[in-house]
Amino acid sequence: MDDPLGARSDCVDLKELTRWNLTQLPMTSEDKDADISPFPWRNDLNSKLILWCGDITRLLVHGIVNLTNERLDAKLPETEMIYQKGGPDLVAEIRNNVRICKTGEAKTTKGHKLPARFVIHTVGPRYNIKYITAAESALFSCYRSVLGQVREHQMKSVAIPCLHSMRRGYPIEDGAHIAIRTVRRFLEKYVDDVDSVIFVCNEDTVDAYMKILPLYFPRSSQEEVDAIKLLPEDIGNENGEPIIPERQIRIMDKPMLASMRNTDDLDELEQTIDLNKEFGTSTVVEVGRHPFAQMQSNPDEVKITSMSSYTTAEQRHLENKRRYERLLKRSRVEDLTDIAALKCIYRTGVDRFGRPVLILVGKHFPANTINMERALLYLIRVMEPIVESDYIIVYFHTQTSADNHPDMAFLKQVYSILDNKYRKNMKAFYIIHPTWWSKLATWFFTTFTASDIKNKVISMRGVQYLYGTIFPDQLDIPSFVINYDIEINGPRYYEPPNEAGAEAL
């Protein structure tokens, strides 16, 4: 580093951390007929990158990033630790000199008593399925603003945590793509300005970063090739910013030349320039063929046309469908054995009409610790083969606690993302051993969010009531559910129902 930082016994020096170019590579076979990657293998960039799990306040670096809220007083463990170790002078500088930081912006203070010389404060976006584009743009702005502060303050090393928080509903892997490729494009442009970029992870985010880092920072020529087929459709522009098609316009440069040259000459003149690079926009401008400035894809016209072609509901449906297709693709290739091992979502037999049955076990679902995005991927993987035709769901609410209840916002998001066939072909949703809380939550959810399945949701106070539609030998019921049912309802002896009995049940 240019100027040494004061050493402390509890600090973590960068010399102790493993650079990305020195991490272990997976075994792969060589592909001689490979495509060209937009993110080629560059050892000089990889040598500047570090992936590390730990306490960011211990890092002996020039700058660390603090993910906070707009008033910079977020009650998050990481933020409180930064303020505590930075001391009252750090808090006073924030209160007196910074005060406000808007979403997508970044502001810098001194580190004071922290090992780091600077603290870069930024505010990440909330994620809403209705406004995915806005969330992606705001998240990119966070990383771009942070890296801008790094250059402005001539920081040679910076530690960046995950700025897309699950607390705000942002899917970890989706955000990691934006984070990593933005850093990649930054290092490509300013390779000599920064010595070290540390992605600081925790147990919830490290797997996603380990998976996605090789796509943008391949460690060998073969890993570069393998990454091509795993890259998302949108790999951003030259800065890593998500591409928004309606921003792309074409206008005429030097219109007088158009009247003096023929079509062939004009073809040679066509070129792409950036209209507002100094403002950080992504507007693409090209030389036109009309004597006057010509806009072939006016953003306003595109928006008006789009709004007139589709209703708001249709636009939301198209966005949800795009998101679902992306999740479906991921669910087919990701290793989700850890989610499967929980036995909270699984297929069992069929009901009396031959319809497949899906089992949900509430007690087995660790809502406070599980990666909710991976749980959604596993749900899609299990359900996708059966939702093309009629099916039913049995949910055992037996002995669940607050630790097993997923957030209502997450349930709404899942409901909006899942393809319409899930709702259309689900013929019944049985809730076994409901509680007063579950009945209230179900009523609220089916009244205000999922009204189209309201009449399909049926609460049952005992397992035996299922036997009217599902034979016992077609049900794989956890033993604790059976024991609890006997405890509250007494032992039951099953007799195969006739048609009349089935209807009675």
TrEMBL record:
Give start and end of each CRAL-TRIO domain.
335-489
Which InterPro entries does this UniProt record tie to the protein?
A: CRAL-TRIO_dom, CRAL-TRIO_dom_sf, Macro_dom, Macro_dom-like, Macro_GDAP2
Name the source's superkingdom.
Eukaryota
PROSITE patterns to which the protein is assigned, alphabetical: CRAL_TRIO (PS50191), MACRO (PS51154)
Macro domain span: 36-217
UniProt-listed Pfam families: CRAL_TRIO_2, Macro
Q: Which family does the record assign?
A: Belongs to the GDAP2 family.
Q: What is this protein called?
A: Ganglioside-induced differentiation-associated protein 2
